[in-house]
Each structure stands twice: as C-alpha cells, then as structure tokens.
Design brief:
Strand 14, helix 7 and strand 15 form a beta-alpha-beta unit. 31% of the residues lie in helices and 27% in strands. The protein is globular and about 60 Å long. By secondary structure, the chain is of the alpha/beta class. The protein has 2 domains: 158 residues, Rossmann fold, CATH 3.40.50; 132 residues, Rossmann fold (3-Layer(aba) Sandwich), CATH 3.40.50. The strands form 4 sheets. A 6-stranded parallel β-sheet has the order 2-1-5-6-7-8, sandwiched between helices. A 6-stranded parallel β-sheet has the order 10-9-13-14-15-16, sandwiched between helices. The structure holds ribose-5-phosphate. Ribose-5-phosphate (R5P) binds next to strand 13 and helix 6. Ribose-5-phosphate binds next to strand 13 and helix 6.
Length: 298
C-alpha cells in the first residue's frame, strides 16, 4: 500500500492524486500555538509504507518548517520512503545573484528539501537559468508539464486562438502549447522595474486578426505581468484576451486587479484557487505512482 498525506490547503490535489494512484490518504492534525509555532500529529499509521506529502509551496515561508517536521514524524513512525509532491515548487526565481550580496535562495531551498525528502515531483518549475532541477536538487526529481492539458483546454474552449507569452521567458511554454493545437504564437517584451512595476511592449501581432488572444505564463504572482499585457493588447485593439497560468499564486490584490481588467482567467490546479479549471491530477498521479511504488534504496 502507498500513502498520501495532505499539507493544509492541498487536500483537493491529494484527493485527486489518491483517485489516480489508488493510494490511501492518512490524516494529519495541525494547529498553531499562540506564538505561531506549528503543532503536527499523524492520526494514522504509516509504518512500513511509502508515503508522499502533497504540498503546494506557494507562501513557502509559512509552510516549510512544518513540512520538515512532518517528514521527520513520518520517518519516526516507520515510513519506508518519504517523497514530496509539490505541484508548485517555490524559490526558483532567485537563480543567481542579480546584485552583489544577494542570497541565491533557490540553492539554499533545494539543499533543504533534498536533505529532507527522498524524491520530489513538481509541475513546470520555473527553470530559467537552471536547465534542470538536478543542477540544484540532489534527490531524484520528476517534472510534469502542464502544456498538454492547457493545449487540450484551449483547443476545446477557444475559437481560433493566438498564443501570446508576456515575456521572452514564456516562449518555451507558449510554443509548446501552440504546436499541440496548431495555433500561431508570439511573445511580448517585458521590462520589470520592481516587484509590481512591469511594462510590456508588443513587437508585432499581425497574426491576431480574427483570433482570440490567449496570454499564457507559468506563474501569476503579483499579476502585474498579465495585467500589463492585457492592457497593452487592448490598446492595440485586439479582443479581450484570455489569461492562462499554470501556477495561481495571486499575491495580495492580484486576482481582483486582473479580473477588473476584464479577461477570463484560467489556471491549473497546482495551487488551489477559484480560477482552477485545468486538472492535472491524472498526469501527476501517473508520475507519483512510479516514485511511490519504487523500493527503498537500502
Ligand atoms: C517570470 O519570470 C515568470 O515567468 C512570470 O512572468 C512572473 O513570475 C509573473 O510574475 P508577476 O505575476 O508578479 O508579474
């Protein structure tokens, strides 16, 4: 038997994974002490079992200390292997020093998770200057790509789509999605001056005539990238775009601000959010199954 355990907030993804993997879910009791420290208690046995913790790692600073303690508790109770299904993997965007003295948090976070879990499964990690997770993670990792599911959704719902990436980095996702549904694609040019200060320009979107613009990006965090792109496209006279994101972080007022600009907003269910319309459970389940079924190395 293999087991899944949900970190608070990831219960729906855990149920989806259980349905595709045939794993059982074990219950976790959590609460915060008055000073904010976390209390954790496993409510069923995991002795002799291979276990995966399911935790979307948005807001990672709130979750990470507890996740480390949970992995320790699972091992103390006899779990043979403890893996991490992190449909959204945090701390990848600081992938180098942009200014002297900066901490390269992606490396530190990777070292922390690698020393805690036996394996890691995630969806479309933000790999820009790293080519693969193995450059910083020392445990076996597996990446699920959302592009087939996003392409399927666009192909079913959008008439004559034009795929648009809001910046050069998004070309990798946008071109993949577009190729799967035989749609044209392009990218905009982004200048980021601060966390919430983003400007985009449109090099050429001649292909847009008669088509519905679909902005696709991996992460929607402050939402400012999408917002700037929506505004620029509308100024250019295109129909109101549809915004598709893989990871629905939506920090602060991001969701309301983007909704107010008028687009339909659709995301994948890597982070539980009202915009989740694209279900990746079966793809994640298939990948998790391989890890869960593997025998311990020793
Ligand atoms: C950038 O490198 C990413 O692909 C996203 O475009 C970015 O993370 C979006 O961030 P925000 O929503 O804060 O503009």
């Amino acid at each position: 038997m293999t087991l899944l355990i949900a970190w608070p907030g990831s219960e729906a993804q855990t149920r989806g994974l259980a349905a595709t993997t045939g794993s059982s879910i074990i219950e976790l009791q959590t609460r915060r002490f008055p000073d904010g420290e976390i209390y954790l208690r496993l409510l069923s046995s995991c002795a002799g079992q291979s276990v995966a913790v399911v935790a979307a790692l948005d807001r990672p600073d709130e979750k990470t200390p507890g996740l480390l303690a949970l992995a320790d508790a699972l091992r103390a109770e006899g779990a043979t292997r403890v893996g991490l299904v992190a449909p959204y993997l945090a701390y990848l965007r600081q992938d180098r020093q942009f200014n002297p003295g900066e901490a390269v948090t992606s490396r530190t976070y990777a070292r922390l998770l690698s020393s805690t879990f036996d394996w890691l499964l995630t969806v479309d990690p933000h790999l820009h200057r790293y080519h693969s997770l193995s450059e910083i993670y020392s445990i076996p990792t597996r990446v699920v790509h959302a592009a087939p599911a996003i392409a399927d959704w666009i192909g079913r719902i959008v008439n004559l789509p034009l795929l648009i990436g809001p910046d050069g980095e998004s070309a990798q996702w946008v071109s993949d999605i577009a190729a799967r549904i035989n749609a044209p694609w392009t990218t905009l040019e982004k200048t980021r001056r601060g966390d919430r200060d983003v400007e985009v320009s449109i090099p050429h979107i001649d292909q847009s005539r008669g088509r519905t613009p679909v902005l696709a990006d991996d992460i929607i965090s402050s939402g400012r990238t999408m917002l700037a792109a929506v505004k620029r496209l509308r100024e250019a006279g295109t129909p109101t775009p549809i915004c598709v994101g893989v990871h629905a972080i939506f920090a602060g007022d991001a969701y309301d601000a983007l909704l107010a600009a008028g687009p339909r907003i659709v995301t994948c269910n890597t982070i539980a959010h009202p915009s989740n319309e694209i279900d990746l459970s079966s793809m994640m389940g298939a990948a998790a199954d391989e890890f869960l079924a593997a025998k311990p190395a020793h």
